[in-house]
Write a structure and sequence with these properties.
By secondary structure, this protein is mainly beta. The chain contains 4 helices and 21 strands. Keywords: ATP-binding, Hydrolase, Nucleotide-binding. Pfam families: CT_A_B.
């Protein structure tokens, strides 16, 4: 078992999300940065969708009541194991009684803690991802206990050396360009607006979370609202007053604003690690070129 001594800002168990349930108005959920989470699982030789702990900005302090093999994956963070620093994107081991403290995520918004075999969590509608109203809890709190998957004690040991050819591609996140393709209502913009959309530099506003990221600049338009239509993570909505809203993993499943762009999978994890005032520019995906 793992005891939560301090919960951090927002720490939740996540996998790759819930699929096939949008018709019930249930969000997809899942990890915000699928690249970093998958990288951690790959280093541990886990399945890609093994459950991980998603840490937001300020992380938890965890006491391990059993030994475990772990990876912390992300851009830059201050992490201590029994007051000793731990490197990102490398396999390390903990023993019974050890305390791991993710003090601060210093670059990006999210860090992922993965364990060999994955963490155990309640599975609802095919996913263990926390979501308020679907799972029993939305985030970890002080005093909670959760555990490693039983496979953790029976599978072979993992090591960074085994995957020495793997390199965490941090350049994915330092690049300001966000990959997109045209959304269903993109054609409602005139040619000048379409060009402006791809030639402008935008900045992330202070309004961002697991549901949506809002951009600071307004984009003037005279588009009418549309009939309520399906939306998915990565859909870029344009409101009548010019707000650009990018839906993320916990977003609703329908919306009534024009869907002018759609982020690619890569675009979603790139944006997920952007912070307030960071600049970004939309670019058409390689698939569309």
């Amino acid at each position: 078992m793992i005891k939560v001594l301090h919960s951090g800002l927002h720490s939740s168990l996540q996998d790759m999300g819930r699929f096939g349930v949008a018709k019930y108005a249930i969000p997809q959920s899942g990890v915000m940065d699928s690249y970093s989470a998958s990288f951690a699982n790959l280093l541990l030789q886990n399945k890609k969708d093994a459950t991980v702990l998603e840490v937001t900005i300020q992380g938890p302090k965890l006491e391990f009541e059993t030994k475990a093999t772990l990876v912390c994956s992300g851009l830059k963070a201050k992490i201590l194991l029994n007051e000793n620093p731990i490197s990102l994107n490398e396999v390390f081991k903990v023993q019974q009684g050890d305390v791991l403290h993710v003090q601060q995520v210093m670059e990006g918004n999210y860090l992922y803690l993965a364990c060999k075999g994955g963490f155990e969590s309640e599975s609802v509608l095919g996913s263990s991802s926390f979501y308020n109203g679907i799972t029993q809890q939305a985030k970890l709190k002080k005093g909670d206990r959760f555990q490693l998957n039983s496979a953790a004690s029976t599978t072979a040991n993992a090591s960074t050396e085994t995957h020495s050819h793997l390199k965490f591609k941090k350049e994915f996140f330092s690049n300001p360009t966000i990959e997109v393709f045209e959304g269903p209502e993109f054609h409602l913009l005139n040619s000048q607006q379409q060009e402006q959309l791809f030639n402008s530099i935008f900045h992330l506003s202070k309004n961002y979370n697991r549901m949506a990221f809002q951009l600071e600049e307004t984009f003037e338009n005279e588009l009418d609202s549309i009939l309520t239509s399906p939306v998915i993570p990565g859909t870029v909505q344009l409101t009548p007053d010019g707000k650009l809203i990018v839906l993320m993993k916990d977003a609703q499943t329908t919306g009534g604003y024009p869907r002018i762009l759609q982020l690619t999978k890569k675009g979603i994890f790139q944006l997920a690690q952007k912070r307030q005032n960071e600049n970004l520019q939309f670019t058409t995906s390689a698939f569309d070129r």
